[in-house]
Write a structure and sequence with these properties.
Blueprint: E1 5-9, H1 14-28, E2 33-37, H2 58-73, E3 76-79, H3 92-106, E4 110-114, H4 122-136, E5 145-149, H5 155-159, E6 164-167, H6 172-181, H7 183-193, H8 203-211, E7 213-218
Parallel strand pairs: 1-2, 1-4, 2-3, 4-5
Antiparallel strand pairs: 5-7, 6-7
Helix pairs in contact: 1-6, 2-6, 3-4
Length: 221
């Protein structure tokens, strides 16, 4: 059993869409989970549907949504304090040292992050790379395992089959509850799957189809 799991993603909602079922499984086993969230997602395009946020209010709204989702998932939240859409321009070594300091304090047995160059968004790729570099800098005998999440369409042909494939249907209600905490974002994302106006129609079924498997590659150092 894991001793402590640290999840490192750049945006509020990455944890809910990407790993909420896995997080819920660990919490069911009594494993502590800490989320290091890179930014407040303040440059996001979604403003709620119908719109209830604007450029000025979005950071505070997304922060509160994130706190609510972390409460649902029963995990500790730590904000890394970077600016949305700028992570690729940060000094990677500085970000890695920042993360390393936190990892050395928490001493996790497992770190979950994005797979660099296979995570679609520049922030995902940059923070994933910095998180993996942070773990690499830790003494080998204390180094946690890294599960890296790839979300590109070419991941299977480029990387092969992920070593960790979690079917999270048993925790799917919890995952949906966490996703829906991100009210300003969830409808926009879900609408992009289904152009019809009737979101309630088979929403959970559609989400289950797309989000009930959470898979990760074990990073080789």
């Amino acid at each position: 059993m894991e001793k402590h799991v640290v999840v490192i993603y750049p945006h509020p909602d990455d944890e809910s869409f990407g790993a909420a079922g896995t997080i819920a499984k660990f919490r069911d086993q009594g494993v502590p989970v800490t989320y290091l969230c890179g930014t407040l997602g303040e440059m996001g395009r979604n403003m709620g549907n119908p719109t209830f946020a604007n450029r000025e209010t979005l950071p505070e709204i997304r922060k509160q949504e994130l706190i609510n989702a972390c409460n649902v998932l029963d995990m500790e939240l730590r904000m890394l304090g970077y600016r949305d859409k700028t992570l690729e321009y940060e000094d990677r070594n500085e970000v890695a040292q920042h993360i390393k300091g936190i990892l050395e304090e928490l001493e996790p047995s497992l770190v979950i992050t994005h797979y660099p160059e296979h995570a679609v968004h520049p922030d995902h790729n940059a923070l994933g790379a910095a998180a993996i570099e942070a773990v690499r800098l830790i003494d080998e005998e204390k180094r946690p395992t890294v599960w890296a999440q790839a979300i590109t369409n070419t991941q299977l042909e480029d990387l092969g089959v992920p070593q960790i494939i979690n079917d999270v249907r048993d925790n799917f209600d919890k995952k949906m509850e966490a996703i829906l905490c991100h009210q300003s974002q969830a409808n926009g994302v879900i609408r992009s799957w289904n152009q019809s106006d009737d979101l309630s129609n088979d929403l959970k079924e559609e989400a289950m189809k797309r989000l009930s498997i959470e898979s990760f590659y074990i990073w080789k150092f």
